[in-house]
Amino acid sequence: MPASIIDGKMIAAKVHEETAEEVAVLARDYNVQPGLAVVLVGDDPASRVYVNMKVKKCKELRIYSEKHALDKTATMEEVLELVKKLNNDSRINGILVQSPPPPQIDEDEVVAAINPAKDVDCFHASNVGKMLIGKNDGFVPCTPYGIMMLLERSGVDPSGKHAVIIGRSNIVGKPMMALLVQKAKGANATVTCVHSRTKNLPEITRQADILIAAIGQPEFVTADMVKDGAVVIDVGINRVEDPNGRSNYQLVGDVKYDEVFDKASMITPVPGGVGPMTIAMLLHNTIKACKQQNGIV
Ligand code: NAD
What does residue 158 show for φ and ψ, rounded to 5 degrees? Predict the structure, then answer.
């Protein structure tokens, strides 16, 4: 039976609506406006698009935002100086340094310099650790958080289910494992993570009740790798040549959508699945940061 589509655009729009309501309450009851600073180093075209999308969404939701664009030749000292300035700026509740920076920038060192209270992307070791031990006074990384939200709002309870995650990046795969395995409502899954060194990968993915693909390999997951009735979440965003030649490229996920669609019970499309949730959760985290920094519960 064909799958039902998990509509990330619609769910993200609902999260944005809730964020806008929170912004209105903060203004009305506390005279506070949340603020997000986005730092872009260099001229990576995709990064520029992502940064502009984030700033645009902030404007729409009346979140104060600052875009700091540094030249591709910027030094570590310049980036660290900017992060320090933003750490000390009370107008700014959340700081995001767009990944990937140019090679002379040590991303780990930059992330470590961000005040964990403003680390709304949840890359700082302090927030990653809090997430792992299930403490919820830190932040949850935006893409895996968005996936948890997609599951919850689509009525998928991971409790007791076998969730298989393909990919072990610090941004998606590893935090996804940590969130799904928590002893907590909306989690409690049995989690397996497979990656580039896994033997018999399809044998394992075929056991998944919930299959999450995050590897950056166009249409890697084929129907024969999916169990009948599985919930399939496609995180991948890959640019491939447009077979119809209508534009320069086409976006596809890590899942061969057309054939898996007939096997899964639910599936996220690309685009319009996980992607829109990432910005939604970033702004959700910014509100949380603002409340924490202003002592608002
Ligand atoms: P990454 O390159 O950091 O990590 C990829 C992971 O996949 C690695 O752990 C690697 O071991 C694994 N892998 C690669 N090839 C494999 C193979 N053939 N078999 C098994 N495992 C393999 O990637 P990432 O940052 O986690 O991103 C993954 C994908 O998700 C990319 O397409 C990226 O664009 C996309 N992404 C989307 C969003 C969003 O908002 N929708 C956010 C982050 C990443």
Answer: -70, -10
pLDDT at 1 over 80: no
CATH topology of domain 31-116: Rossmann fold (3.40.50)
Where are the CATH 3.40.50.720 domain residues in the chain?
142-275
| Confidence band of 188 (pLDDT split at 50, 70, 90) | very high
| pLDDT over 90 at 248, yes or no | no
pLDDT tens digit string along 17-55?
999 999 999 999 999 999 999 999 999 999 999 999 999
Question: Ligand 1: which of 143, 215, 225 to mutate, judged by most atoms within 8 Å of the beta carbon?
Answer: 215
Cα 297 to ligand 1 centroid, rounded to whole Å: 36
Distance in angstroms (rounded) separating the CA atoms of residues 252 and 120? 28
125-134 per-position pLDDT tens digit: 999 999 999 9
Instruction: Evaluate whether 236 touches 218 at the Cβ level (below 8 Å).
Output: yes
Is the pTM higher than 0.85? The answer reads: yes
Domain with CATH 3.40.50.10860 in the chain: 31-116
Of ligand 1's atoms, which has the minimum distance to the CA of residue 275?
41
CA–CA dist 204, 252 (Å, integer): 23
**Atom of ligand 1 at shortest distance to CA of 238?**
32
Question: Cβ-count burial of 219 within 10 angstroms (0-12 exposed, 13-18 middle, 19+ buried)?
Answer: buried
Q: Which atom of ligand 1 lies at the shortest distance from residue 198's CA?
A: 20
Q: Could you list the active site residues?
A: 54, 98, 121
The CATH number of domain 142-275 is 3.40.50.720: yes
Indicate the residue type of 161.
Answer: K
How far is the centre of ligand 1, averaged over its atoms, from the C-alpha of 171 (Å)? 9
Q: Which of 99, 140, 196, 205 to mutate to test the pocket of ligand 1 (most atoms within 8 A of CB)?
A: 196
Q: How far is the CA of 138 from the centre of ligand 1 (A)?
A: 24
